[in-house]
């Protein structure tokens, strides 16, 4: 664990000094938690919680204002047939569509914009900062930035740190989610180091993936990131959120993540301020399960709306 | 962070018991059939989580044991040893498949009779039991490659006495290699957990296993003693306490009967300052709280490098608070019931000796059920090597924490025990792992993992943890003799 | 050379114990008479006491530490060196065997040659045991898993009473080739070749304490050795008394020792079985995860 403020000259050795992660052990812990059987009232609660944690996402080249407006409508009222259904936490879109989204959701939801040359992160610092500033100016109150994986893998932790700090600064009051793109970091040791690096640099959330790289979120990676926010809070007294993004499509999967949160960091993180799902298709499966639990019979795809 | 990490209450998720059909009483299984001995006394087997009576079984005496051994002898001489290895192997494969087919039923039965969590009986005991039969089945026609020369011979009748901690799995460890190597078996399950062995008898019938190849006699230690001392027996395989193991070794002195023993342990689980800490915490938990600590190779002595002991204990205590103790049949239970009132008494007494000798006790906060036998996951700190809880096998969910300063000291402390069954090493440094592994006097060394088992992996102890190996090619030697000897 | 035709008086040897690389007398000061096969006096040989036996176990424990830490290649070379040293004393061994066992010169030479060749046979095993007995185990999970043989530790062995040299070598060599140290109790009635073997071992680069050879009465020494807490295994090859053997086995159970039972009908000429070595080995299995 890294305690007292670390000078940039010590950053490398501090991150290298973090305890290693044994991949097999971490995977087996995550798999074991995946066997938890969440039934009845616990399941109902978990589904509502999961819905409220969704960052409903569209990040396609073919996104249009119309598509974003539809997404926002769905985000605010996921199940028009049941007003008791919670709204999702945020919509997550490209920066040029922020104004459209903000107009659609008003103050009802967070608007998260991906920035910093998402998803590759391959652009100059000036471009990344300008992109961030413009998204915030257009109404984004959450910024999902990507780290420079090239710099990270080259061992240039200082560069990654400085970039995150600068983006955080450019965010102003908007909350910063730092996407580690764990599918490109490959090892869990890297995931742990990148998590600490992002937190030390000021991240409000650490996020697994862009969704554009396979594998995206996995229970094992998320476990390691949850351990990092837990340990960070213990040393620095600041709770950093975790966002699992990409590849989580079913209610069953989502509940497994909630179990991971519950048994790794506990109740404090079981709310949308500290845990999010970055997803698009997950929401409809959560709604189908919710309908089934309320009606007692299986629902069908035509009983939930397409975005 | 709150003190109560678990704020997401899981609704009860009980596994259904409808799948299990328990008779109100059982006879013993001899020569392919259940027989009801006229005079044998009967005793009850209970569910240790509820103290409800599950069934009644026989206390087999000398006549029953003799009949079982005679049936095994006949089956060995006339049928089983004469059969080709390939055919014998096919019977063993059948048993593997039957265990897989009826896995859920047997897992529930095991949890009811033993008190272990259904998650473990379902995910560990049953899959591994089937795997043992599957692995050994393939050896039956390849014994020329067992390392004992061409055409090694079976020993004859194997008397197998197994413990209550992994009833069906220990049966598999014993029966599978014996059958594959051409021996026949008289098995005695532990008196508190006879039901899955009796269910296995039914599997033998479903497999059309020739009568007498597997015989099962129930009873307590007296039955075991009669069996071990029976003249017609050629080999005794015992898993259980070191105390009883010594008695058996004594009783076999001067006979021609061969012996393998898998006895107790007091394993050191050694955590270096460069360990993968979160996985080490899981390994510690798995090492001592798996199966309520009723594990001969449990990592009951935690040896922590002094520089990280405080940090590690914070992590360990926090983790223990998330352990779910209770109904073994609930799919979310991590720690089930202590197997018997007698075992609970022993655990309580040893824990009290820890208090009396000045160690600091901490137990995970958990609500224990009103009925049944329970003991909370417990850690003792400030333990010195002289304390009873650092030397004696507790066989319960009780961890003793000691510290060390250097690798040499870790090895010295780890080896400072008459036992030598297993050990754990946690460090990210590869060369240190190999250095440690070669110096630890233990039959199984887990590096950056703990309590892993596999039929292909030989298991057994040094010193007073016993002799002989079970599993792998090394395990075959326990049931074979060289053709020329 | 005025005394050239006079018969020279031979210098006789004092037959002592071999403990920790040294040749002490018995601490008890006792000796016993050893006779040849025809009843003729050969020598007074040290009669080891329980205390000598205890000292021998202590030395063996020390010897075991360095010997088991040596490379298998090194152990193999040392065992081969023993054969070389024996070869140099071939005539002496043959004469002693002939006198002890009452056999003709041809037989005695055959026995001696077999004993020398046995060292060569076992020398070759040192760096092959782990390959023949060890295994890589394909477990069903992401683990590297292997099993290796390791010496059990200190072995107390009672050499066959009849086969004074070949039987002795055939019980010592399989014990030590893998890294065990031993306390060998020589044939009580035919101990002379054993004492000569001790002299060979002392000059064969074998670390002190790896082999300790005691002469005397096994029935006197063995009960305390069988119950000894720092002895790992017994080889009762030469215990002819079935009652004594059973008693020793019972005593051994107190510390769960590995026991090789008596071999009254053993044919020491035969190529030994692997069991002679593997009975005195432990199998250690090591698991490690495979991950990135």
What can you see in these coordinates?
By secondary structure, chain A is of the alpha/beta class. Chain A is built from 13 helices and 8 strands. Chain A has one domain (about 30-295): TIM Barrel (Alpha-Beta Barrel), CATH 3.20.20.70. Chain A starts with 7 loop residues before the first helix and ends in a 12-residue tail after the last helix. Chain B is an alpha/beta fold and about 475 residues long. Chain B folds into 2 domains: about 30-265 and about 465-480, Aldehyde Dehydrogenase, Chain A, domain 1 (3-Layer(aba) Sandwich), CATH 3.40.605; about 270-460, Aldehyde Dehydrogenase, Chain A, domain 2 (3-Layer(aba) Sandwich). In chain B, the strands form 5 sheets. Chain B has a 7-stranded mixed sheet with strand order 13-14-15-12-11-16-17, with helices on both faces. A 6-stranded mixed sheet of chain B has the order 8-7-6-9-10-18, with helices on both faces. Chain C is an alpha/beta fold. Chain C has one domain: Aldehyde Dehydrogenase, Chain A, domain 1 (3-Layer(aba) Sandwich), CATH 3.40.605. The model of chain C has no long low-confidence stretch (mean pLDDT about 95). Chain C starts with about 30 loop residues before the first strand and ends with a strand. In chain C, a hairpin with a 6-residue loop joins strand 3 and strand 4. Chains in contact: A-B, A-C, B-C. Strand 17 of chain B pairs parallel with strand 10 of chain C, so a sheet runs across the interface.
Keywords:
B: 485 residues; alpha/beta; Aldehyde Dehydrogenase, Chain A, domain 1; Aldehyde Dehydrogenase, Chain A, domain 2; 2 domains; six-stranded mixed β-sheet; 15 helices; C: 292 residues; five-stranded parallel β-sheet; 10 strands; globular
């Amino acid at each position: 664990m890294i305690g007292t403020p670390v000078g940039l000259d010590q950053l490398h050795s501090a991150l290298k000094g973090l305890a290693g992660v044994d991949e097999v052990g971490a995977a087996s812990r995550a798999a074991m938690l995946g066997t938890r059987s969440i039934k009845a009232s616990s399941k109902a609660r978990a589904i509502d919680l999961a819905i409220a944690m969704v960052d409903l996402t569209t990040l396609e080249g073919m996104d249009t204002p119309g598509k974003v407006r539809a997404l926002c409508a769905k985000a605010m009222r996921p199940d028009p047939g049941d007003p008791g259904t919670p709204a999702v936490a945020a919509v997550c879109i490209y920066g040029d569509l922020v104004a459209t989204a903000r107009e659609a959701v008003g103050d009802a939801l967070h608007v998260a914009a991906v920035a910093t040359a998402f998803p590759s992160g391959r652009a100059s610092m000036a471009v990344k900062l300008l992109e961030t500033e413009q998204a915030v100016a257009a109404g984004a109150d959450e910024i999902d930035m990507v780290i420079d994986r090239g710099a990270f893998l080259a061992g240039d932790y200082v560069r990654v740190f400085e970039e995150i700090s600068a983006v955080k600064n450019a965010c102003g009051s908007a909350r910063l989610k730092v996407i580690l793109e764990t599918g490109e970091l490959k090892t869990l040791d890297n995931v742990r180091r990148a998590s600490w690096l992002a937190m030390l640099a000021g991240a409000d959330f650490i996020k697994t993936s862009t969704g554009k790289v396979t594998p995206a979120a996995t229970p094992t990676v998320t476990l390691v990131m949850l351990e990092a926010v837990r340990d960070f809070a213990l040393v620095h007294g600041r709770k950093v959120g975790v966002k699992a993004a990409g590849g989580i499509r079913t209610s069953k999967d989502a509940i497994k993540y909630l179990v991971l949160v519950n048994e790794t960091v506990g109740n404090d993180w079981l709310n949308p301020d500290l845990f999010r799902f970055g997803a698009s298709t997950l929401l409809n499966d959560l709604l189908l399960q919710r309908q089934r639990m309320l009606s007692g019979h299986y629902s069908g795809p035509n009983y939930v709306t397409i975005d | 962070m709150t003190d109560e990490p678990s704020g997401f209450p899981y609704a009860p998720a009980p596994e259904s018991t409808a799948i299990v059909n328990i008779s109100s009483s059982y006879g013993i299984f001899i020569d392919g059939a259940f027989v009801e001995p006229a005079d044998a006394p009967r005793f009850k087997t209970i569910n240790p989580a509820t103290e409800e009576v599950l069934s009644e079984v026989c206390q087999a005496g000398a006549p029953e044991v003799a009949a079982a051994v005679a049936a095994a002898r006949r089956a060995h001489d006339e049928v089983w040893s004469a059969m080709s290895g390939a055919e014998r192997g096919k019977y063993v494969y059948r048993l593997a498949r039957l265990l897989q087919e009826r896995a859920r039923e047997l897992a529930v039965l095991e949890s009811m009779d033993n008190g272990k969590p259904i998650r473990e009986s379902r995910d560990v005991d049953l899959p591994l039991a089937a795997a043992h039969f599957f692995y050994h089945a393939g050896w039956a026609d390849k014994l020329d490659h067992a390392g004992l020369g061409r055409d090694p011979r079976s020993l004859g009748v194997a008397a197998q006495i197994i413990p209550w901690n992994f009833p069906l799995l220990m049966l598999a460890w014993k029966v599978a290699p014996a059958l594959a190597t051409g021996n026949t078996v008289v098995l005695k399950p532990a008196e508190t957990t006879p039901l899955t062995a009796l269910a296995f008898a039914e599997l033998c019938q479903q497999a059309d296993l020739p009568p007498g190849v597997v015989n099962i006699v129930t009873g307590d230690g007296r039955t075991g003693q009669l069996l071990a001392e029976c003249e017609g027996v050629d080999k005794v395989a015992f898993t259980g306490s070191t105390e009883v193991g010594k008695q058996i070794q004594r009783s076999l002195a001067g006979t021609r009967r061969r012996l393998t023993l898998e006895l107790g342990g007091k394993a050191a689980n050694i955590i270096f300052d460069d360990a993968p800490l979160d996985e080490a915490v899981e390994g510690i938990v798995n090492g001592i709280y798996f199966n309520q600590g009723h594990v001969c190779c449990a990592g009951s002595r935690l040896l922590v490098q002094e520089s990280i002991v405080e940090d590690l204990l914070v992590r360990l205590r926090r983790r223990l608070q998330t352990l779910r103790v209770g109904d073994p049949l609930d799919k979310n239970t991590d720690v089930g019931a202590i197997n018997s009132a007698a075992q609970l008494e022993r655990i309580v007494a040893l824990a009290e000796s820890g208090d009396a000798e000045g160690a600091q006790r901490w137990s995970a906060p958990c609500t224990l059920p009103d009925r049944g036998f329970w003991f909370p996951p417990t850690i003792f700190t400030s333990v010195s090597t002289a304390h009873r809880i650092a030397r004696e096998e507790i066989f319960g969910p009780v961890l003793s924490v000691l510290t060390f300063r250097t690798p040499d000291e870790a090895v010295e402390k780890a080896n400072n025990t008459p036992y030598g069954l297993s050990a754990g090493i946690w460090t990210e440094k590869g060369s240190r792992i190999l250095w440690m592994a070669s110096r630890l006097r233990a039959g199984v060394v887990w590096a950056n993992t703990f309590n892993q088992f596999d039929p292909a992996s030989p298991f057994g102890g040094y010193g007073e943890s016993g002799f002989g190996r079970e599993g792998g090619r090394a395990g075959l030697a326990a049931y074979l003799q060289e053709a020329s000897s | 050379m005025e005394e050239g035709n006079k018969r020279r008086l031979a210098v006789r040897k004092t037959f002592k114990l071999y403990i920790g690389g040294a040749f002490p007398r018995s601490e008890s000061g006792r000796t016993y008479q050893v006779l040849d096969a025809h009843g003729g006096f050969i020598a007074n040989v040290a009669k080891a006491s329980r205390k000598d036996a205890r000292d021998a176990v202590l030395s063996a424990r020390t010897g075991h530490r360095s010997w088991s830490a040596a490379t298998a290649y090194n152990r193999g070379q040392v065992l081969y060196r023993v054969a070389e040293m024996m070869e140099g004393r071939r005539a002496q061994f043959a004469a002693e065997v002939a006198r002890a066992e009452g056999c003709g010169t041809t037989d005695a030479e055959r026995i001696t040659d077999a004993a020398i060749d046995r060292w060569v046979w076992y020398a070759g095993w040192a760096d092959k045991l782990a390959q023949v007995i060890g295994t890589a185990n394909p477990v069903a999970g992401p683990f590297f898993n292997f099993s290796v043989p390791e010496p059990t530790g200190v072995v107390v062995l009672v050499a066959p009473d009849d086969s004074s040299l070949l039987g002795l070598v055939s019980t010592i060599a399989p014990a030590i080739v893998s890294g065990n140290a031993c306390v060998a109790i020589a044939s009580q009635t035919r101990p002379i070749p054993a004492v000569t073997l001790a002299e060979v071992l002392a000059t064969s680069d074998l670390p002190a304490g790896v082999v300790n050879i005691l002469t005397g009465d096994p029935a006197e020494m063995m009960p305390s050795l069988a119950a000894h807490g720092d002895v790992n295994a017994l080889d009762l090859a030469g215990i002819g008394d079935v009652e004594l053997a059973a008693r020793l086995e019972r005593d051994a159970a107190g510390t769960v020792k590995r026991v090789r039972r008596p071999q009254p009908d053993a044919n020491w000429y035969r190529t030994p079985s692997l069991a002679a070595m593997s009975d005195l080995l432990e199998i250690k299995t090591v698991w490690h995860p495979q991950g990135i």
